Amino acid sequence: QLRLVESGGGWVQPGGSLRLSCAASEFTIEDYAIGWFRQAPGKEREMVSCISSSLGRTTEYADSVKGRFTTSRNNTNNTAYLQMNTLKPEDTATYYCSGLMGCGAFYYITAPQSGIWGQGTQVTVSS
């Protein structure tokens, strides 16, 4: 079963930064768009960002993270990243990456069934 592995989560104070990584070991992520999603307790999973496949020339961000988060990819390392700056308590959630066939609402909606997922990494922002 294809899967991704997230890392880099942890605890950080408000205003701090974290860099999440999303690594694949059994397939090539170059062929996939990589979406980052998060789920806070009691809330639905939401899209955070997406970077298109191959060279990653297209990115999308949720309004709540625009200007603070940056997604990137390194196909040589078979890894995608989510740089999170100016973190807020409301960013606290479990963060997941997913291999998708593209970026866009259709792919985010169908991701639970069709995407390749990791186990998630916890991000906690508090003082």
Features:
127 residues, mainly beta, 7-stranded mixed beta sheet, 4-stranded antiparallel beta sheet, 1 helix, 11 strands, 8% helix
Describe how the helices and strands are arranged.
Elements: E1 4-7, E2 10-12, E3 18-24, E4 33-39, E5 46-51, E6 59-61, E7 69-74, E8 79-84, E9 93-100, H1 105-114, E10 116-117, E11 121-125
Parallel strand pairs: 2-11
Antiparallel strand pairs: 1-3, 3-8, 4-5, 4-9, 5-6, 7-8, 9-10, 9-11
Structural commentary:
The N and C termini lie far apart (39 Å). It contains one helix and eleven strands, in the order βββββββββαββ. With 127 residues, the protein is mainly beta. Strands 2, 4, 5, 6, 9, 10 and 11 form a seven-stranded mixed sheet that branches. It has a four-stranded antiparallel sheet with strand order 1-3-8-7, with no helix packed on it. The model has no long low-confidence stretch (mean pLDDT 95).
